[in-house]
Amino acid sequence: MIHDPDAKPDPVAAPGQDRYGPGLAVFARAWAKAVTGTSYLPVTPAQLEEFLEGLTVRLVEALHEEPFSLRRGYQIGSDLVAAHIASAEGLGRTIEVIELRLLRDLGLSPAGPPTAASAGSPDATSGGPGSGGPGPGDDLRDRMARLLGTVAIGYARALRDRTLDEQESIRRAAMVAREQAEHALRESEARFRHQATHDPLTDLPNRALFAERLAGVFERDGRSGRRLGVCFVDLDGFKMVNDTLGHQAGDQLLVSVARNLRRGAGEHLVARMGGDEFVILVEDTTCTDDVLKVADAALAAVNEPYVVDGQELRVSASIGIVERPVAGTTPSDVMRAANITLHWAKSSGKSRWALFDPERNERELTRYALSSAMPAALERGEFCLDYQPLVSLCDGRLLGVEALVRWRHPQLGVLRPDRFIGLAEETGLIVRLGSWVLAEACRQARRWVGLSEKAPFVSVNLAVRQVRGPGLVKEVTGLLREHDLPPDRLQLEITESAMMNTADESVDNLRSLADLGVRIAIDDFGTGYSNLSYLRTLPVCELKVAGAFVEGLRAPATEPASVTDERILATLVSLAHTLDLTVTAEGVETATQADRLRAIGCDAAQGWHFGKPMPPSLVDALL
Amino acid sequence: MRRPDWAPETIDIDRPSAARMYDYFLGGSHNFAVDREAAQAMIAAVPEAPLIAQANRAFLRRSVRFLVEAGVRQFLDIGSGIPTVGNVHEIAQAMAPESTVVYVDIDPVAVGHSREILDGNERALAIRADIRDPDRILDHPDVLKLIDFGQPVALMIVAVLHYVRDEDRPTDLVGRLRSALAPGSYLALSQASGEGRSPAEWDEASAVYKRTDRPLHNRGRAEITQLFDGFELVEPGIVWVPEWRPDSSHAFEDVERAIYIGGVGRLR
Predict the structure, then answer these.
(1) How many CB atoms lie within 10 A of CB A591?
(2) Into which CATH architecture does domain B18-267 fall?
């Protein structure tokens, strides 16, 4: 659209230019001067004059052409615009200079075409402006008027077209620029969004995007039977890599692991949750197997060897898996379950997956609930003791009772010790609970002493921590004094494991207690290490033989296994008697068992056959 | 969301553009009503504004002709604006068709229009960049496609630096560009000077340009001379642009009022 006379010089050298003599150049110079400054002309003044000389010749030719042609004027006007003489001022001055000077400067008689002789001397031709009346001069003036008219028309048309073209072109450029800017903005927004939703190290989706996608699974409607799966992946021993090879190596490893995981997980979303935790979302599973396949592939992908800093590394991962129907769960439930399951995988040996098990989870939740409720329950007095008779096998006399702790849970009912003693040991509450049991048992024992001369001793189980505790002797001494309880009415049952390390305080504790006259019994004898050496050195007075051996005595005496158990029991009894210890058999449930134990020479028995654990009021009746 | 730093600016055609006002002064129609309105306000302040723009454009034309005659075949035109009549590639390629030209402008509309004009011309292209980021220009793959910095280059910075603030250190910017040039390269530069005009005129003109996308920062002859540091000025040195190698006697009636001062220098 830009037409540059520099580039394509117009054919200005019209034939017969010389015919017009010096007047032509004079006129062209005047014309050039008139239009200079009306708009920017990308040519030298000399080029402009040359161009306008050419136009001048065409103007003169047009004036004399027979028949007169409108097209000539249009073309000249249009060529002016094309040469960038393209403004209202440019047109006005062009018309002015032509009208004023063309005929005069070129010595043109209004009557006819100029001759070389007449050029520059207007008076030399007839029919000059002064000749008067209609004639050829009038014709030339008519033609000049019409020519200028057509030049103006051609010029105005061309200028209008040019203006419209330029407007169109600049608008198009603005539109394109705006589109590009918008496109760039969209791209930058996309980039921004990518940054906001991806982990910069691995370029995996981050926690935010994962949460969004997981929430999407729950928002999307579809068949009510839709299911989903989540694999919560955690590297095993990643901290070691960081600590030994440095964080940079750790980061390199994470990048490689991320790449492998992404490949291993196929089309499923893999996100980095932070650190060495990753998660795989498996949408629209049909069954648990679908997720297990993904988990297997993920484990295999992680297990591939890595080269970090020139060293070959191998890592494994543990995965917690949840797979369930979408209905009836929530994103946070799913994630919590996956996280719990990951810990199961870790605690069962790492480098494996574990599948969420609602029952196990329920148990753990209950344990947790019990464990946290126990201290307050102890404060509120929710614990109580039942007592189980220990009966002499010789004469059926009631020798003692074993105190068994119960928890009257407001929601769960009466809980037996196997539900909560382990928890109390984990949390350390066992010491306070054990003290309470000891105190309550002593109180009760004293009550029975008051009721009967044949009052039973009360046997109390001590936890390992109690036995090792520095305050045990003082505690027991205090209780005996407080309740004025004869020491031989208190028996303390300790497990073999409490005796494992005879070097610590426990031995001294037990000696001191035995010196007081308190009975010491070994509980569950025969199931632990059954170290015989402490039986020599410790002030033990009784062995309680675990129910497992007694169980064998239920079977007919002809069965080999039963015979074996009976022989073990007989040996134990014989051993105990050698050491001057009595033997109590636990878990005696039938008369046959009682008879066989009596035949072996076992001193006492405990079990349903002789009485279930019972509240203290029922013990009263046995006195 | 706050627009991040690296997000591009949007196209605001409701604001007068210095590039399109310049086109209007040259007689072009590549402009919008807001541009014409601002240009007319400028003409009210400085009636010769169109003539001044034309004189500057003529300086560009004469300097390109001079440079082609001096043997330069590569042109880096920074701040090329709206490619109205008499563009560098038209002048240079008419004289030496092998000449290559890269146009650089900050105005996305100007660049868009340049690309339309240059469509099909394998030896000329336009990029969008800011003269205040010379490294981006020098490292731009499109620039490197057409310009071999091992050969002489004509660096055209015509009627641009008065849009750059002193804080942006125009001398350093030119210096950075110069450091990429091979010996025998040239700098053709002009910029608005504060000389030859009354403070009142300047205030009025500045007020007009404050409304545009490019406020004005004029500089004195000494400062403009400093921009040529490292270049050997060719005759006639740093002058009012109509005085630089004029090709006609009736160039500009009162050169003192031509606002633009400029010149051409050769890198030793």
Answers:
(1) 9
(2) 3-Layer(aba) Sandwich (3.40)
